Amino acid sequence: MRVEWTQKNVRELRQERHHGDSHAIGPNSRIGRRKEEWCVTPICGYAATEHRERGRRSGSSLSPNVELETDLRLSSNVTCATNGNEVNDGFEEIIGSSRALRDVLNLVRTVALTDSTVLIEGETGTGKELVARAIHEHSTRRDRRFVKLNCAAIPLGLLESELFGHERGAFTGAVVRKVGRFEAADRGTLFLDEIGDIPLEVQPKLLRVLQEGEFERLGSTQTQRANVRLVAATNKDLAKLVAQNQFRNDLYYRLNVFPIVVPPLRDRRGDIPSLVMHFVRIYAERMNKKIETIPTRVMEALVSHSWPGNIRELQNFIERSVILTDGNTLRPPLEGLQQTAGIDSLKPITLEEAERHHIRKTLEQANWVVAGPSGAAVRLGMKRSTVYFRMRKLGIFRANQIAENTI
């Protein structure tokens, strides 16, 4: 959607900032002074619709200046504004401004200044390590080391040595003394990823160091002390593992001091356009390509996809798309998404996902018209305001109603 801005429009929109999951005009947006220089702020579909409704009710001149355009254009010299709350202030590596993400970042701000243990839960590929790093960077230990260990990537017999270290000759192949991760992270932060994969025989020693800050290296009787702030992450249901006697309940309670659940990408679809443009810019620069346009149908397909692999899957798909693109318009292999979607449709879904799918399909059938006798509100048996509320809550918007997106 191309918007030809006037100074009156700019003043009106700044006065009527939308306080939902959309992006509104902010101080970082570039508003052209001449007619041919137009700005590029991402505005979700429901927000754009509400602005048009306001224009009709108030007599504003915004509505006549809006015309549809088929593509979303990219511009690397313009910074997208947030919705006025500076939601990512201090979290520059975390892309998005959906309500679900804002809730996570608010929890990070709350717990970061403490030394309490944090348990980050979420599906694979949701960005749990980024959240862990954000906790460290906003803590009083930010000037100390951030040490990480993927517990699932270490062979069973070596995990204890990786955590607590060993002395020379402690076992075959231990030719030198080794400092463990707890010792290396002293006065800093230790991030243990996939903590649900720690074997039962190692868990008592982990519990002891969390409670008392003491441990011994393998092959040593000398007690070591470490002042470590622990952040753990898992994609498993630890409570279920406790019920199955596969995880110690006392360790679970010690880890679950402050849980943070990172939502899957399908629950924050409003962030997908920003993520897409972010990854396109990164890989285009890395491959010395100039990609300026994302077709509307492409963005709609990306937003509609369930992304079972979450952000990691989206990132890899965009990298492949940039590789396959020859010109300045992104040409992704959408048939691959359709095949994956066919597999995903066999999986059970939540009631929220079913509602999101039903409302989106109804909106598509109504050509994204909410009000009126043929609008989606009538078809759904809801008030117009209720439909807008559900769209906002579920992160539903029409990709081609984003006004000239930039990164």
Describe the protein's architecture and organization.
- With 407 residues, the chain is an alpha/beta fold.
- The chain folds into two domains: 2-85 and 268-401, Helicase, Ruva Protein, domain 3; 99-261, Rossmann fold, CATH 3.40.50.
- Helix content is 40%, strand content 10%.
- The chain contains 16 helices and eleven strands.
- The chain has a five-stranded parallel β-sheet. A two-stranded antiparallel sheet has the order 1-2.
- β7 and β8 form a beta hairpin.
- α3 packs across α4 (128-137) and α10 (272-286) crosses α12 (310-324).
- It is elongated.
- The two termini are 16 Å apart.
- The model is unreliable at 1-70, 75-86 and 400-407 (pLDDT under 50).
Q: Give the number of DSSP strands.
A: 11
Overall mean pLDDT stands at: 77
* Helix content, binned percent: 25-40%
Uncertain residue ranges: 1-70, 75-86, 400-407
Cα separation of the termini: 16 Å
Characteristic key phrases:
10% strand, disordered N terminus, 5-stranded parallel beta sheet, 2 domains, two-stranded antiparallel ribbon, Helicase, Ruva Protein, domain 3, Rossmann fold, disordered C terminus, single chain, 16 helices, 407 residues, alpha/beta
